Amino acid sequence: MATTTRPKPKTVFPKIISTLWLLFLSGLAVFILYIYAVSVNFLNLFGDLPNMRTLENPKSALSSVLYSADNKELGKYFRENRTPIEFSDLPENFVHALMATEDIRFEEHSGIDPEAMARVAGSLMIGSSKGGGSTITQQLAKNLFRTRGEELNNGYLNDKPGFRTLIHKTKEWIMAVKLEQSYTKQEIMTMYLNIFEFGSNAFGLQSASKTFFGKDAKDLEVQESAVLVGLFKNPNFYSPKFNSDNSKHRRNVVLSQMVKYGYMTQAEFDNLKNTDIALKYRVENQNVGLAPYFRTEASKFLLKWCRENGYDLYADGLKIYTTIDSRMQQYAEQAVEEHMKDRQKEFFSHWKGRNPWIDRQGKEIPNYLQTAIKRTDRYRNLNRQFDGNQDSINFYLNKKIPMTIFTYDGEKEVQMSPLDSLKHYKHYLQTGFMAMEPQTGHIKAWVGGINYKHFKYDHVKQGARQPGSVFKPFLYTAAIENGYYPCYETLDTQVCIPLGDGTMWCPNNADNKFSGEKFTLRKAMAQSVNSISAFLVNKLGAETLVKTARRMGITTPLEANPSLALGVNDVTLYDMVGAYGTYVNSGTWIEPNFITRIEDKHGNVLHEFVPKTVDALSEETAYMMVHMLKAAAEPGGTAYYGLRHRNGLKNEIGGKTGTTQNYSDAWFMGITPDLVAGAWVGGDDRSIHFRTIALGQGNKLAMPIYGNFMQKVYADKSLERSKDPFPKPSTPLSVELDCAKYNNGMPVDSSQQDEFYQVPAPIDLDAF
């Protein structure tokens, strides 16, 4: 019997392997084709990718920084508050905390972490969303190139369900790989930390460190680094300011990850895990920090410069170096606050039970608030909203709402109507103060008001007010240039000057009396005798006074009218300080300036600024005016007691007080050999003021700010401000300044009594 051999059954295993391998290769090919299709935006299905130029020069908005002359940061200009940091300035503990929490294999992968992606894929297969697969490089790509923004997601499939997230992730993979090919690991981490938004308007690690902990990033302690690393998961939910419990929990998660990967011991973790988060929270904006009025005024100049030179102040990371000295600025702000707080208490007491807005007869101005509120943004917005319907507008103007108001005892949360809020703020006196180095024109301190957050109007350069007697030195300057001199004597008698309209101008003295006594010009200016100013303007002509003031830097409109001699035309404090600097600077007017140079983000100098100068006066005239101004701080002068006794200033000082009609404006201008300063105090409106000269005059309201400031400046030895006498002219004077050396006194102008009209006339209080 024949035997048959039974064939062995064929195994299906090789076929399965072959099929799987074929499927894998096919899937890989499809995946590669898909990646390629996304990278070239095939048929516009996926939307664009950033071009190579963008990749090679990734740009994020950088804050421009304003620096003081002593290299302190004064503030920033930004849309996004971002200050770049170098990798060398990153604290090691922060780098370790970030890697341990966000991307432990950061140093090993090439932009995509296969292990993390496999973990995420496995989690998704079992229906879990635990764990994330994005590397630091992928997160950088997402944030740097806005891969999820509308600009790069304009393809056909982007709006189809299920495709959008996949396309986003794919673009981030592609860009992450390209980033890894273009940059080092250190550069990638530095870019990521410079662009991330940490919340509270803090973009980048340096800004976040300043905002939350009040320190540079390089000084962060490990627990502080852990708090900031915790924000990468969700800046709002884990905010240490607004969700402290969540933040503390997340901080401890970060610290435990550092233990897990050997960056911290268990004992160190146990020592830190129960500690509270110690914040020094401050959101950077224009309302806080030194010199807010100055920073705002500087921005006007800088925006113009940027427009003309092709830069963006809020995004290009410019470095702007100013003339402001942070120490002097601090002393100026302190002097203003200390003085104005006391004067405000006095003002409240003075007007207790009454409103301070009064007319020339001392009567309250009817409907003052109703008129004033029409000048506010709130009224204009309501007017637009209700198409001018006055009933609706008045309803909301009188409706109480929650608001934060300013007081010298700190901000207060109140329920108050907009009309009552306006009434509250109109009761406050305002001020302006500026100090300048006369030889350079460098502005060293600038205080534009009592509180920038609540009173934005700047009283240094933006506002102009009547200067009163601080304008008189320009008249005396013109007199000296025209042959008069400090010891020249005149009589204190009423002077009436005919005007073009047939009327007479007959100014009165401050005490409404005329002594008939002889006054040297020096004494007359020191005691601010109006009759002698009238004598001089009549002799010289108002046009001469206008020309002199213009040469010395006064830019506001001036009318060639005799009353100009008593300071009736508005001027700015900015111009006045610059003009007085001419006396100290040997007759050369130098334009007040506050920017010395601008650099780009790399430190390359873009522009250095040279101030304008004018040879306004002769050296002799300038020195004689310094001699004249010194009389105010000598016995009998209006500044003597305040500066010498109250403030204890013993060095040579020149000065001039000024008080205008009804005490609406109080001024003081002070000069020393290396510093010129001015102060103004008054109400927002001219109708708001004290009712007596004892309370409203310049040496009471304005001069103490100057005296307090100078006291603080001289006490700070690091400022090295001179107490030496004013330097003598380079050539001998043509006249004698010691009036006692003239034999038998000085002759009085014999034409004085004959030329002036001694007729009764109403006193023009506008000229006071």
Automatic annotation (TrEMBL):
Its main location: membrane. Gene3D superfamilies: Biosynthetic peptidoglycan transglycosylase-like, DD-peptidase/beta-lactamase superfamily. Residues 432-674 form the Penicillin-binding protein transpeptidase domain. It catalyses: Preferential cleavage: (Ac)2-L-Lys-D-Ala-|-D-Ala. Also transpeptidation of peptidyl-alanyl moieties that are N-acyl substituents of D-alanine; [GlcNAc-(1->4)-Mur2Ac(oyl-L-Ala-gamma-D-Glu-L-Lys-D-Ala-D-Ala)](n)-di-trans,octa-cis-undecaprenyl diphosphate + beta-D-GlcNAc-(1->4)-Mur2Ac(oyl-L-Ala-gamma-D-Glu-L-Lys-D-Ala-D-Ala)-di-trans,octa-cis-undecaprenyl diphosphate = [GlcNAc-(1->4)-Mur2Ac(oyl-L-Ala-gamma-D-Glu-L-Lys-D-Ala-D-Ala)](n+1)-di-trans,octa-cis-undecaprenyl diphosphate + di-trans,octa-cis-undecaprenyl diphosphate + H(+). GO terms for cellular component: outer membrane-bounded periplasmic space; plasma membrane. GO terms for biological process: cell wall organization; peptidoglycan biosynthetic process; proteolysis; regulation of cell shape. Pfam families: Transgly, Transpeptidase. The keyword Transmembrane helix applies. Coiled coil: none annotated. It is found in: Cell membrane. Residues 72-258 form the Glycosyl transferase family domain. Pathway: Cell wall biogenesis; peptidoglycan biosynthesis. Keywords: Carboxypeptidase, Cell membrane, Cell shape, Cell wall biogenesis/degradation, Glycosyltransferase, Hydrolase, Membrane, Multifunctional enzyme, Peptidoglycan synthesis, Protease, Transferase, Transmembrane, Transmembrane helix. One of its GO terms (molecular function) is serine-type D-Ala-D-Ala carboxypeptidase activity. InterPro entries: Beta-lactam/transpept-like, Glyco_trans_51, Glycosyltr_51/Transpeptidase, Lysozyme-like_dom_sf, PBP_transglycosylase, PCN-bd_Tpept. The chain crosses the membrane at residues 12-36. In the C-terminal section; belongs to the transpeptidase family. In the N-terminal section; belongs to the glycosyltransferase 51 family. This is Penicillin-binding protein 1A. It comes from Pontibacter virosus.
